[in-house]
Design brief:
- By secondary structure, the protein is mainly α.
- The chain has 40 helices and 7 strands.
- It has a 5-stranded antiparallel sheet with strand order 3-7-6-5-4, sandwiched between helices. Strands 1-2 form a two-stranded antiparallel ribbon.
- Helix 1 (19-33) runs antiparallel to helix 2 (40-56), helix 4 (77-93) runs parallel beside helix 7 and helix 27 packs parallel to helix 29.
- The protein is globular and about 110 Å long.
- This is Beta-adaptin-like protein A.
Length: 840
C-alpha cells in the first residue's frame, strides 16, 4: 500500500524558500550600497528587516555580511542599529568576518551624532574577538573622555567587556584608574554607577593576584567614597541606588554617631516606591545596628510599616519576595510583629505560595494575646478547597499548640478535625495529636476517646498511619480494641508499602505485648516473623533486635522498648541556627527567597569563601525525603566525580549484608497453624525471663528452635597506616577521577556514634586518631558527607574514601578507591573498625 501523499505546505512569507532568496537579497543590497537616490534609506530598511528576520529564526545569512557593512554608510540611526545587531551576531561565530567591520565601526565612533558614537562603541566592544582587542583601546579611551554622557556610559561598560576579553590589555591601558576618576568626578549619575559596578567586578577578580587591586577594592568601602555616593544617592536610578546601598552595607562605621548619620541620610529611602530600594535600605539599617541591641530592635519597628505596605501592593510575585524577607525578620523577632498578625491573614485570591508563607508567619507571631484569633482563622482554612493549604493550616494549629498557647482550646479544635471525615484532614490531625500527646500526656484520655473511633482502614497516608499505630501501642491499656487492630494490620503486613509504618507496627506490637500479653502473644510472633523476612534492612534489623532482646530477658526488653517516658519539652527545628544566621547575612538576595544559603544553590565560581575545600567543591546536602527515611539523599558537589548520582546510590544499596552468624528463625507461612496450638501464658509471664531460646520461640508461637550461634572473635586489622600522611586537594581530586571504585559497602553506626555526630568536625578528630584524614566535609543533621584519605605506613600507596552518613537510619555508605586494589578489603576493615569505635 502506497503511503499517503503529504499535504502541500506553502512557504512562510518571512522565511526564504531556498538559497536563491538569500542570493537575491545579496544582489539587492549590493545595488543599494552605492546609491544615493531619494528614498534609498527606506528601501534599505525593508531589506535590513528581511535580513534580521531571517537571522532571528536561525537561517544563515552570513553571506550578505559584506553588503550589510557597505550599506551601513548612512546617517539613518535605525539602519545603523539593525546593522550593528547583524554584525554583533555573526562576529562571534565568524571572527574573520569581524575584521571587515573594524574600519566602519571605528569611523562611526567619531561620528557627530553622540547616539551613533555610543552605538558604534557598544557594537565594537561586543565583537568579543580576542584578535581585535588592540582596536578597542583607542575608541574606548576617546569614549571615556567624550562630552556626551551616553557615550561615556557605554565606554565604561566597554572597559568591563574588554577586561573579560583580555584582562592584561585592560590593565596595561590604565583603564581602572580612569574609571575611578570618573566615578568620583563625573556629573552624570549613570556614569558614576557604571564605574562603580565595573570597578567592583574588575578589582574583585584582580584581588587574588594583585595586592594593589586588593587595596583598591578595600578603598571602595572607605568613608570618603561611601559619603560621596550617599550624598548623591537621590540622583541615581533605582538600579544604581541598590548598587550603592549594597556597598554601604559592607561599610563599618567608626562610631555610633556615624551610624545615625547614615541612617538619617537614608531615612527617606524607606518610602521609595521601588521594593528593591526599600529592601536594600533595610539591609543597611540591619547590618549597621547588629552590635546595638536596643537600636536594632527600634530598626525592626521602623521597617515594619514599609514592608507591610510593599506586601499589600504590587504583583503576587513581588509580594512573595517581600514576604520572604519579612518572614526571616518575623522568625528573628516575632514579638515585634505580634500586633500586626492580621496582615498575615490569607486572601482568597492569593497564590498558594504566598498563603503558605503567611501561615508560617502566623504560627511565629502567635502569643497569649492573639492565639484565639489566629487559631480561629486557621481553622477556617482547614476547609479550604486548596488541599495543600488546608494541610498547612492544620499543621500551623498544631505548632501553636506546641508553643503552649491556649492548649485546651486548641486540643478541642484538633479533635474536631478528626471528626470532619476528610482523609487529608484526618491524616494531618492524627500526626499532630501524636505530637501533642508526647508533650502533654495529661490529654491522653480525651484524645484516645476520639482516636479509638477511627478505623485504620480509612487512614492511608504513611505518616498518619504510623501516628495511629504509635498511639495504639503507647495507650493500648486504654484502648479496648488495640490488640485486635494491631492484629489486623499485622495480617496485612505484605500489603503495607511503607517501611515507616512497618517499623512503627513492630514497636507498637511489642509495647502492647508488655501491657496486654494474653491478647497480643500470637500477634507478636507473627509480627516478628514477618519483620525478620522483610526485604527492608531497617525493618529486618529491628525485628531481629526485638527477637534477640526477648531471647535474652523479657524484663530487660520491656525496660528498653517501653520505659517510663518523660514529656517532650522542645521539638527539634528543621533548620539550624547557623543556617538561619547565614541567610540573614545574605539579606536582600535569592538566599532569602530560597530559604537556604547561597552556597547551596550557586556554582562554585560564584559562591565566595566557605569553610570547605575550594578544590573539592562546597558540599550541600538536600533535605531528607518524607517517603524514605533510610538512604542518604543526593549531595550536590561541583565536581561530577564527587557527585552522588542515582546510579551510584543503587550500587550502594546493592551492597550485601552478612547475617549468617544469626540464628534467628525464618518466616514460615505454616507458623500461623503452629501458633493456634500454643497455650496462652498468664499475664505475669511477661515479667519473667525464659530459661532458654526454645521457650521464647514457643512463647511467640514461631514453633522453631533458635539457639544462638557463638559469635566469631573479632580479629584486629593487620594493615598499618601512616599517621602523618599528606595529600593535597588537587591530587585527591585527580586520583578520584582516575581510580575505579574498589569497594562499595554500607556500615552501621552505633547509637553512641549517632549521638556524637552533631557536627562534621566531631568525626574528623576521631578518624584522624586512626590515621585516616579528612580532606573535605559538609552537611548538617541528619545527612553528612566526608572525603577521607589514608596512606600505607611502609609505602606511598593511597586510599580514597567517600563516606555518606545518615544519622536517622544510623547507616554509613562508603566507597573506597585505592592505588593498590588488592589491599582495599584490608583498609575497609580498618575503616569499619575506626568507625565502629566512634562515640561521645
Amino acid at each position: 500500500m502506497a503511503p499517503p501523499a503529504q499535504a502541500h505546505r506553502s512557504p512562510s512569507p518571512s522565511q526564504p524558500s531556498g538559497k536563491g532568496e538569500v542570493s537575491d537579497l545579496k544582489s539587492q543590497l549590493r545595488q543599494l550600497a552605492g546609491s544615493r537616490a531619494p528614498g534609498i534609506d527606506d528601501s534599505k530598511r525593508e531589506l535590513f528587516k528581511k535580513v534580521i528576520s531571517y537571522m532571528t529564526i536561525g537561517i544563515d545569512v552570513s553571506a550578505v555580511f559584506g553588503e550589510m557593512v557597505m550599506c551601513s554608510a548612512t546617517s539613518d540611526i535605525v539602519l545603523k542599529k539593525m546593522c550593528y545587531l547583524y554584525v554583533g551576531n555573526y562576529a562571534k561565530v565568524n571572527p574573520d568576518l569581524a575584521l571587515l567591520t573594524i574600519n566602519f565601526l571605528q569611523r562611526d565612533c567619531k561620528d557627530e551624532d553622540p547616539m551613533i558614537r555610543g552605538l558604534a562603541l557598544r557594537s565594537l566592544c561586543s565583537l568579543r574577538v580576542a584578535n581585535l582587542v588592540e582596536y578597542l583601546v583607542g575608541p574606548l579611551g576617546l569614549g571615556l573622555k567624550d562630552n556626551n554622557s551616553y557615550v561615556r556610559t557605554v565606554a565604561v561598560i566597554g572597559v568591563l567587556k574588554l577586561y573579560h576579553i583580555s584582562a592584561p590589555t585592560c590593565i596595561d591601558a590604565d583603564f581602572p584608574p580612569t574609571l575611578k576618576h570618573l566615578m568620583l568626578n563625573d556629573p552624570d549619575p549613570q556614569v558614576v554607577a557604571n564605574c562603580l559596578s565595573a570597578l567592583q567586578e574588575i578589582w574583585s577578580l584582580e584581588a587574588s593576584t594583585s595586592e594593589e587591586a586588593s587595596r583598591e577594592r578595600e578603598a571602595l568601602i572607605s568613608k570618603p567614597v561611601i559619603y560621596y555616593l550617599l550624598n548623591r544617592i537621590k540622583e541615581f536610578s533605582e538600579w544604581a541606588q541598590c548598587l550603592v546601598l549594597e556597598l554601604v552595607a559592607k561599610y563599618v562605621p567608626l562610631d555610633s554617631n556615624e551610624i545615625f548619620d547614615i541612617m538619617n541620610l537614608l531615612e527617606d529611602r524607606l518610602q521609595h516606591a521601588n521594593g528593591a530600594v526599600v529592601l536594600s535600605t533595610i539591609k543597611v539599617f540591619l547590618h549597621l545596628t547588629l552590635s546595638m541591641t536596643d537600636v536594632h530592635q527600634q530598626v525592626y519597628e521602623r521597617i515594619k510599616a514599609p514592608l507591610l505596605t510593599l506586601v499589600s501592593s504590587g504583583s503576587p510575585e513581588q509580594s512573595y519576595a517581600v514576604l520572604s524577607h519579612l518572614h526571616i525578620l518575623v522568625m528573628r523577632a516575632p514579638f515585634i510583629f505580634a500586633s500586626d498578625y492580621k496582615h498575615f491573614y490569607c486572601q482568597y485570591n492569593e497564590p498558594s505560595y504566598v498563603k503558605k508563607l503567611k501561615l508560617e508567619m502566623l504560627t511565629a507571631v502567635a502569643n497569649e494575646s492573639n492565639t484565639y484569633e489566629i487559631v480561629t482563622e486557621l481553622c477556617e482554612y482547614a476547609a479550604n478547597v486548596d488541599i495543600p493549604i488546608a494541610r498547612e493550616s492544620i499543621r500551623a494549629v498544631g505548632k501553636i499548640a506546641l508553643q503552649q498557647y491556649d492548649v485546651n482550646a486548641i486540643v478541642d479544635r484538633l479533635l474536631q478535625f478528626l471528626e470532619m471525615e476528610k482523609d487529608y484532614v484526618t491524616a494531618e490531625a492524627l500526626v499532630l495529636v501524636k505530637d501533642l500527646l508526647r508533650k502533654y500526656p495529661q490529654w491522653s484520655h480525651d484524645c484516645i476517646a476520639v482516636v479509638g473511633s477511627i478505623s485504620s482502614q480509612n487512614v492511608q497516608e504513611p505518616k498518619a498511619k504510623a501516628a495511629l499505630i504509635w498511639m495504639l501501642g503507647e495507650y493500648s491499656q486504654d484502648m479496648q480494641d488495640a490488640p485486635y487492630i494491631l492484629e489486623s494490620l499485622t495480617e496485612n503486613w505484605e500489603e503495607e508499602p511503607s517501611a515507616e509504618v512497618r517499623l512503627h507496627l513492630l514497636t507498637a506490637v511489642m509495647k502492647c505485648f508488655f501491657k496486654r500479653p494474653p491478647e497480643t502473644q500470637k500477634v507478636l510472633g507473627a509480627a516478628l516473623a514477618a519483620g525478620l523476612a522483610d526485604f527492608h534492612q531497617d525493618v529486618h534489623d529491628r525485628a531481629l533486635f526485638y527477637y534477640r532482646l526477648l531471647q535474652y530477658n523479657v524484663s530487660v526488653a520491656e525496660r528498653v522498648v517501653n520505659p517510663p517516658k518523660q514529656a517532650v519539652s522542645v521539638f527539634a527545628d528543621t533548620q539550624s541556627s547557623e543556617i538561619k544566621d547565614r541567610i540573614f547575612d545574605e539579606f536582600n538576595s535569592l538566599s532569602v527567597v530560597y530559604q537556604k544559603p547561597s552556597y547551596m544553590f550557586t556554582d562554585k565560581d560564584y559562591r565566595g569563601p566557605f569553610e570547605f575545600s575550594d578544590e573539592l567543591g562546597n558540599l550541600s546536602i538536600a533535605a531528607e525525603s518524607a517517603d524514605n527515611v533510610v538512604p542518604a539523599q543526593g549531595v550536590e558537589a561541583n565536581d561530577k566525580d564527587l557527585l552522588l548520582s542515582t546510579s551510584e546510590k543503587e550500587e550502594i544499596r546493592g551492597a550485601t549484608f552478612n547475617v549468617s552468624g544469626y540464628s534467628a528463625p525464618l518466616y514460615d507461612s505454616s507458623a500461623a497453624s503452629v501458633q493456634s496450638e500454643l497455650a496462652i501464658i498468664s499475664s505475669t509471664s511477661a515479667g519473667s525471663a525464659p530459661s532458654s531460646s526454645l521457650a521464647i520461640d514457643d512463647l511467640l508461637g514461631l514453633g522453631l528452635s533458635a539457639a544462638p550461634a557463638p559469635e566469631p572473635a573479632s580479629v584486629p586489622p593487620s594493615l598499618k597506616l601512616n599517621s602523618k600522611a599528606i595529600l593535597d586537594p588537587g591530587t585527591f581530586q585527580q586520583k578520584w577521577r582516575q581510580l575505579p571504585i574498589s569497594l562499595s559497602q554500607e556500615f552501621s553506626l552505633s547509637p553512641e556514634g549517632v549521638a556524637a555526630l552533631t557536627t562534621p568536625q566531631a568525626l574528623l578528630w576521631h578518624m584522624q586518631g586512626h590515621s585516616i584524614h579528612c580532606i573535605a566535609s559538609g552537611g548538617h543533621s541528619p545527612n553528612f558527607k566526608f572525603f577521607f584519605f589514608a596512606q600505607k605506613a611502609e609505602e606511598s600507596s593511597n586510599f580514597l574514601v567517600e563516606c555518606i552518613i545518615n544519622t536517622s537510619s544510623a547507616k554509613a555508605q562508603v566507597k573506597i578507591k585505592a592505588d593498590d586494589q588488592s589491599t582495599s578489603q584490608a583498609f575497609s576493615d580498618v575503616f569499619q573498625s575506626a568507625l565502629s569505635k566512634f562515640s561521645v
